[in-house]
Amino acid sequence: MSALPRNVPSAIALHEARWLRSSYSTGANNCVETAPYSGLLAVRDSKSPTGPALLFTQGSWTEFASAL
Description:
single chain; alpha+beta; 2 helices; globular; DUF397
């Protein structure tokens, strides 16, 4: 197992991040939210704002989103 990079934010830092939701999402919380943070992009389920978040580099997020 490799060590996490030093710029990986803590759970506290992500709690304080400015989370964004698509303008296409409905009021039913059936979407994901993103938050830019320290050169990374955090992605979480809008139904679980205190739950886990996935962290992507800009390049890996672009590649992932392009494949959808």
